[in-house]
Amino acid sequence: IVMFYDYGNAKTSAWTLINNNDTYSTKESWVAPSFDANAITGRVASTRYKGKQKDKIIAMYDYGNYKPAAMSWEQSSGNNLVAKRELDFGSYDATRITGRFVIGKFDGSTTRVAAMYDGTYVNPNLDERQKIITYAEQFLGRPYVWGGHGPDSFDCAGFTAYVFSHFGYGVSGNTYEQINQGTPISFNELQPGDLVFERGTASRPEHVGIYYGKGQIIHAANPRDGVKIGPISDYVAARRIIK
User: Fold this and answer.
1) Helix, strand or coil for residue 155?
2) Could you report the per-residue pLDDT of 64-122, keeping only the tens digit for each?
3) Is the peptide bond before 205 cis (omega within 30 degrees of 0)?
4) Global pTM?
5) pLDDT, tens digit, 9 for 90 and up, residues 126-157
6) How far apart are CA 155 and CA 222, in angstroms?
7) Active site residues
8) Please, which residues have CB within 8 angstroms of residue 160's CB and are 6 or more apart in sequence?
9) What spatial distance separates the first Cα and last Cα of the chain, rounded to whole Å?
């Protein structure tokens, strides 16, 4: 049995549960400091080869910005696993096959990967900013936890970093670093998807959220409210990440 374990902060390991005469032992078979286990959630399956071929783990990894890739893990020496990036896909949303990803010999001989893709119509005129806002909205109500980087809980900078990373933007998980990323803009230049900083000073802000429009931000507010939409308060600065 192989299990992916999410340590948070994009560190993931694979643990193998080994049965030796009904006695189980565990071994860390693979570890990666820059692999987000949540990017394969609901899109993992294993092969069931016969004969001398090794079974493999196959997963669709979501790199964000509609660029998923097929990954595989195969046992090498001992019980260690080796990961391989098998195939890159273009212009597919990996989240649209979540929970609908399977492997089988559907013709009785050839092992294939199959997925049911959610073809819900998306307005092609929906720009990057609105996509970011729409994606951020799905986390409304998630709890605020100091140091939380998602997806189950967030702090303010962890939330903004997580949302932007889904679209391929490398945004730091620290407010003091986010204030130096992107391009500085004025309050009057704000557009949905811009970063808004509150409290503290323009060089050392204490809070950050994503501009929602009409004077509001979507943000991981505090332990009481979690992720919410609310009015801008104690504005100190803004940055534009979207090019």
Assistant:
1) coil
2) 767 789 999 998 877 899 999 999 887 777 888 888 889 988 888 888 889 888 776 55
3) no
4) 0.52
5) 578 988 999 999 999 999 999 999 899 999 99
6) 8
7) 156, 207, 219
8) 171, 178, 195, 208, 209, 210, 219
9) 44
168-207: b or e for each residue (b if 16 or more CB lie within 10 Å)? ebebebebeebbebbeebeeeebebbbbbbbebeeeebeb
Strands of the sheet containing 11-20, edge to edge, are: 2-8, 11-20, 23-32
Closest by CA to 135, choosing from 89, 183, 179, 193, is: 193
> What is the dihedral sign for C-alpha 167, 170, 173, 175?
negative
DSSP lists the bridge partners of residue 26 as: 17
Q: What is the pLDDT of residue 125?
A: 47
Measured distance CA(129)–CA(211) in Å, rounded? 10
Owner of token pair 């399977």: 102
